């Protein structure tokens, strides 16, 4: 039934389009509704993706940049040569599709486990850590004066927010308390440089092909802050999908990531990256708690959401591995 | 005292039925959901099997560490509060060992295949 609205929409803004077919809701991406469909066109079908307003949303809604900002950021990234899909249309009330946007479909794989295991990506895998460094450097160089209005967060503010989010769960977790103390004690203070931060740059939010990174997705947590945050988040153990000795998304080493970043003309602060990795691990743990809460309180009473609640303990073991490692 | 089969046996029977008899009949997104459902039942079975034993040990460790008595939830609240206030930290004798033991018991239920857990299990649990 979504095809009827999509058909009417594409005929309004895509010259020559005659309708929309093959609409299917994509699984994966827990925080936004994403559909794939084809635009019927006399020159042949055009692959497209619809992103529209969330239903059950994991992070606190105040953290989201909003779909309009997301569309603007993807378009800016595309124009600057950062791998990103081209935005085709920002939804208006006339579209009757909610809020969101339609973008060009980039072919490739987003499912992290497939990227890490399938032969198709065997040649790309060893290059990815370094390549990701280069992509992040490009993203951090997007001109600040062209960005949409975004929230700005220092490490200190983030720690306070995590503390509040964790306490709102009313769920005693000694390991999280330990992590919060560690973060306060190791807060590196304001970053000398403030840039665009993607906010959810990780294996699972990248479209990968045999040639490497084809697109960066899920810009909804973009904000202004310490660029080292993105380098720390991409190393969080949960995004290594089992390849725990390859910190960068299960692809490769921090050294490769840093080399790719610096080759693109930017500086790495390894101590700050480590701080943000601890921060990111706790952040994912608190997000898992948020999923549990959303499941329990009803906005998304799905089994998947319930099970993500049970992933908080993976961040506890990873926090212990970071903060209280045991000998061999 | 309730009759048998036990909850563990009953839950396991349902999981096995879904896994062996229903999985071959289902495809697409419903197959994904079915896998999640089976994973949930397996988790519940693991928790029913292990929880009483691991909670008892956790309470024992917490009582020694904190010098107070209470339920496993109450004692965790006390510990969380003391860490938050800076009264206990990784320099406190026994705290790191307690947190490791407790976390390993959680992973044994939540995600026994999680790579970090398997690595740490290889260090002797």
Q: Helical content of chain A, roughly? A: 40-55%
Strand content of chain A: 5-15%
Our Rg estimate of chain A from Cα atoms comes to 20 Å
Instruction: List segments of chain B where confidence is low: pLDDT < 50 over at least 5 consecutive residues.
Output: none
Helix/sheet category of chain B: mainly alpha
Q: How many angstroms separate the termini of chain B?
A: 34 Å
| Tally of helical segments of chain A | 11
Largest sheet of chain B: none
- Would you report the number of β strands of chain B? 0
Largest sheet of chain A: 5 strands, antiparallel
> Which range does the strand content of chain B fall in?
under 5%
Q: What overall form of chain B do the CA principal axes indicate?
A: elongated
Keywords (chain A): Kinase, Transferase
Domain Aminoglycoside phosphotransferase (chain A): 25-262
Organism (chain A): Bradyrhizobium manausense
Protein name (chain A): Tyrosine protein kinase
SSE inventory with pairings:
The complex is a heterodimer of chains A (328) and B (125).
Chain A: H1 2-13, E1 19-25, E2 33-40, E3 46-52, H2 67-79, E4 87-90, E5 100-104, H3 112-117, H4 125-140, H5 155-168, H6 174-186, E6 195-197, E7 206-209, E8 212-216, E9 223-225, H7 228-233, H8 254-263, H9 270-297, H10 303-309, H11 312-323
Antiparallel strand pairs in A: 1-2, 2-3, 3-5, 4-5, 6-9, 7-8
Helix pairs in contact in A: 4-8, 5-6, 5-9, 6-9, 6-11, 9-10, 9-11
Chain B: H1 7-22, H2 28-66, H3 72-84, H4 95-110, H5 115-121
Helix pairs in contact in B: 1-2, 2-3, 2-4
Can you characterise this structure?
The complex is a heterodimer of chains A (328) and B (125). About 2% of the residues of chain A have low confidence. In chain A, helix 5 packs antiparallel against helix 6 and helix 6 packs antiparallel against helix 9. Chain A is of the alpha+beta class. The longest helix of chain B has 39 residues. Chain B has 125 residues and is mainly alpha-helical. Chain B starts with 6 loop residues before the first helix and ends with a helix. Helices cover 73% and strands 0% of the residues of chain B. Chains A and B meet through helix 6, helix 10 and helix 11 of A and helix 2, helix 3, helix 4 and helix 5 of B.
């Amino acid at each position: 039934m979504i095809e009827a609205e999509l058909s009417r929409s594409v005929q309004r803004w895509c010259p020559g389009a005659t309708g929309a077919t093959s609409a299917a809701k994509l699984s994966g991406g827990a925080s936004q509704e994403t559909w794939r469909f084809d635009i019927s066109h006399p020159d042949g079908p055009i692959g497209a993706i619809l992103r529209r307003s969330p239903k059950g949303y994991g992070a606190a809604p105040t953290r989201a940049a909003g779909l309009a900002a997301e569309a603007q950021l993807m378009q800016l990234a595309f124009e600057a040569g950062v791998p990103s899909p081209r935005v085709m249309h920002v939804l208006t009330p006339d579209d009757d599709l909610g809020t969101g946007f339609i973008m060009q479909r980039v072919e490739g794989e987003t499912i992290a486990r497939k990227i890490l295991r399938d032969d198709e990506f065997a040649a790309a895998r060893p290059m990815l850590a370094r390549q990701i460094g280069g992509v992040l450097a490009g993203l951090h160089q997007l001109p600040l004066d062209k960005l949409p209005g975004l929230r700005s967060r220092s490490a200190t503010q983030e720690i306070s927010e995590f503390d509040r989010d964790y306490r709102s769960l009313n769920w005693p977790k000694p390991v999280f308390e330990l992590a919060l103390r560690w973060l306060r004690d190791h807060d590196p203070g304001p970053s000398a440089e403030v840039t665009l931060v993607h906010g959810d740059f990780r294996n699972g939010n990248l479209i990968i092909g045999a040639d490497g990174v084809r697109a960066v997705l899920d810009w909804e947590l973009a904000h202004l802050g310490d660029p080292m945050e993105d380098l720390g988040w991409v190393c969080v153990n949960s995004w290594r999908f089992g390849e725990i000795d390859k910190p960068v998304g299960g692809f490769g080493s921090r050294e490769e990531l840093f080399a790719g970043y610096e080759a693109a003309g930017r500086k790495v602060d390894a101590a700050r990256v480590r701080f943000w990795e601890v921060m990111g691990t706790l952040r994912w743990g608190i997000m898992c708690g948020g999923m549990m809460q959303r499941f329990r309180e009803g906005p998304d009473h799905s089994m998947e959401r319930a099970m993500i609640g049970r992933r908080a303990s993976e961040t506890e073991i990873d926090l212990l591995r970071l903060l209280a490692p045991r000998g061999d | 005292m309730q009759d048998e089969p036990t909850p563990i046996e009953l839950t396991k029977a349902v999981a096995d039925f879904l896994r062996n008899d229903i999985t071959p009949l289902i495809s697409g997104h419903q197959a994904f959901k079915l896998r999640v459902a089976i994973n949930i039942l397996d988790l519940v079975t693991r928790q029913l099997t292990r929880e009483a034993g691991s909670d008892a040990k956790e309470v024992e460790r917490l009582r020694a560490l904190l010098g107070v008595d209470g339920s496993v939830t109450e004692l965790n609240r006390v510990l969380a509060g003391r860490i938050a206030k800076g009264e206990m930290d990784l320099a406190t004798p026994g705290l790191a060992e307690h947190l490791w033991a407790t976390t390993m018991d959680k992973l044994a239920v939540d995600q026994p295949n999680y790579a970090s857990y398997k690595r740490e299990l290889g260090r002797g649990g």
